[in-house]
Amino acid sequence: MESSRTRNSILDWLLAVSVALAVLVALAGLDFRIGGLSIRAHGPLRVLATTGILVAIRLRFGVESLPAWLTRMVLLTAISGSVLTWFRYLLTTVGGADSFGYASASQLIAQGRLVDAAPIAEWLSAPNRLAIASPLGWAPSPDGSGIVPAYPIGVSMVMALFSLATGSNGVFFVAPVMGLVTLYCVWRLAREWYDHETALLATALVAWNPLIITYAKQPMSDIAATMWIALALLLAMRASARSAFCSGLAAGFAVITRPALLIAGALIPLAAHKGDSPRRRAMMSAVGFAIGVLAQMIIQNLLFGSPFLTGYGSAANLFSTDYFDNNLGIFGRHLWTVLGPLLIAGLVLGLIAARPEPRFNSSVLLGGVALPYLFYLPFDHWETLRFLLPGLVPLTILAADGLMKIARVARTPSVAAIAVTLIVAITAWQSERLLRESSVWNVSVLEARYPLAGEWINVNTPPGSVVLANQHSGSLRWYGKRQTLRWDFIAPDQLVTSVRELQSRGAAVYVALEGNEAEMFDQRFGGVIDQLQVDYVGRIRNVSFRRLNYLPAPNR
User: For 139-160, what is the mean pLDDT?
Assistant: First the structure.
């Protein structure tokens, strides 16, 4: 009996993946490339043929209740469809501050180091030369020995493990893999609190959260932070003292990934206060959490000279009570945009009907996640809610229960199946529309400018060249294989001196400027640029390249 259930479950998943893949290929095609791997498909006929075979096989083994099976297939297909988009639109480039910061830090960690030498800084006489030599995502080390990752290194540590196991492209698979673990944690949590169908609905709702889709395909830390909190909560629900300790460790790793989760992580021992030995479990969880927090303080002391400093700068510059009202409005408006009225209605019903444990754990955890960001620098965009994602995911389980109660009002399996299908369809449609209107599906196309610019530099500049850059200060190191300096950190009266010093070391000096950076560069150095020979040497998309040359006064 158990073996037949396992067989049928595997067949259901294969069928769901096949259906979702057919829809994806029909609507968007499949063109996945990374390293030497290339998968292309632009017609669904072969996939549909496979789907037909799987349907025949699955029906041959029989289904106990057709409405229940169809409900299950709708939910499995929805989950599979979301996950497939992560890989279809996987961002496999390193570009701006976040992706370069995390990926480049992972390279250093894989080598067993946290401080990277910056010998080019010694070529300059500027008092802030180490800052000038720090690309986006990096900062000068407190002792002046080199540069250090500016972002928390939790996700970079995981990236380092992936790259050691699978090669340099492994960094791009961290987010989707951790997204899969997040979905598994959601399913297990919902099974713990409710039933199998509610668990699948909760997983589907989380999978189609536009924030999950947006960041499960990018080399950033948002999905990692969400996964650690979800895993910590799941482990806190288990019965053993060992699982309680591991829940604290997971919460601690959430802090290493994102220090602002300190309050949320500290709430995990409260969730572990249950079972036959609640105090012992809470204590074990607290010990595990303390280990993670202590590790983060040691890392911060090493990287920034104090256990209470991060690479984001002073807390006074990032947090203020003046931001509270603005952030409250921003979060409220965009929660409506991201969740939609249907999910919010389900959440209200789920909160009312929930047992104390899931209601308390989910709502308090969201409060712990949100509290620091209510006082954080405001960013008025729906993607700002990514900061709240570790708290929104557990709360979605309650919303799933509320929506499932609505679907089951008629107490007729066929009506419930139709209701669940409509719930999932509306959720997926709302999410896809928001993603399309926000150009999220086109991010990989937009980000292609980074490797293209790097290729231009690699082909058209001498190997020993130095490129002054801001937005491309990291990516030109990654793709262009050239040393870069931050022109936005060079004082106007230091530009000519810096170019002369670089040329004295035999380096040709270039500038890479993206979009309005060209205007910013001209305004910053307008008073001194006439002391240099400036040649406009190329352009890739919206990135322009100039060569700067210092000539002795008689020859200018």
Answer: 96
- Is residue 184 located within the same domain as residue 297? yes
Alpha-carbon distance of 349 to 354, in angstroms, equals 8
Contact criterion met (CB below 8 Å) for 211 and 389: yes
Confidence grade of residue 35 (pLDDT, cut at 50, 70, 90)? low
Cα 176 to Cα 128, 216, 430, 445, 475, distances in angstroms:
39, 5, 22, 19, 22
Question: How many other β-carbons are positioned within 10 Å of the β-carbon of residue 176?
Answer: 18
**What is the Cα–Cα distance from 25 to 4, expressed in whole angstroms?**
31
Instruction: Say if residues 478 and 100 touch (Cβ distance below 8 Å).
Output: yes
**Residue 430 clears pLDDT 90, i.e. is over it:** yes
Residues 431 and 459 in one domain: no
Separation of alpha carbons 368 and 274, rounded Å: 20
Cβ distance 533 to 555 under 8 Å?
Answer: no
The β-bridge partners of 38 are: 33
Measured distance CA(187)–CA(200) in Å, rounded: 6
DSSP character at residue 194: S
Give the count of domains, the chain. 3
Q: Who's near 297: CB < 8 A, 6+ residues apart?
A: 307, 308
In this structure, are residues 457 and 537 in contact, taking their beta carbons and an 8 Å threshold? Answer: no
Q: Which of 66, 86, 118 is the last residue before a domain boundary?
A: 66
| Cα distance between residue 330 and residue 481, in whole Å | 41
Alpha helical stretches, state H, 114-153 = 129-132
Q: How far is the C-alpha of 206 from the C-alpha of 183, rounded, in Å?
A: 7
3-state secondary structure 474-494: CHHHHCCCCEEEEHHHCCHHH
pTM flag (> 0.85): yes
- Identify whether residues 400 and 467 lie together within a single domain: no
Of the candidates 555, 489, 374, 515, the one whose C-alpha atom is nearest the C-alpha of residue 134 is 489
**443, 458, 479 - which closes a domain:** 443
Is residue 136 within 8 Å of residue 97, measured between CB atoms?
A: yes
Type of residue at 352: I
Query: Can you spell out the DSSP letters for 356-394?
Result: HHHHHHHHHHHHHHHHHHTTBPP--SGGGGGGGHHHHHH
| Three-state DSSP state, 43 | coil
Kind plus residue range of the DSSP H or E element containing 151: none
Q: What is the pLDDT of residue 36?
A: 60
Both tokens of 76, joined, read: 């499995």
Mean pLDDT, the chain, integer: 93
> What is the span of the domain harbouring residue 14?
1-66
**Within 10 A of 106 (CB to CB), how many other CB atoms are there?**
27
**Same domain for 265 and 381:** yes
Burial class (CB in 10 A: 0-12, 13-18, 19+), 3: exposed
Task: Tell me the C-alpha distance between 370 and 236, whole Å.
Answer: 21
Let me know whether 277 and 387 are in one domain: yes
Spatial separation of the C-alpha atoms in residues 59 and 453, rounded to whole Å: 53
- Cβ–Cβ under 8 Å, residues 474 and 94: yes
Asked if residue 188 lies in contact with residue 203, where contact means CB atoms within 8 angstroms, the answer is: no
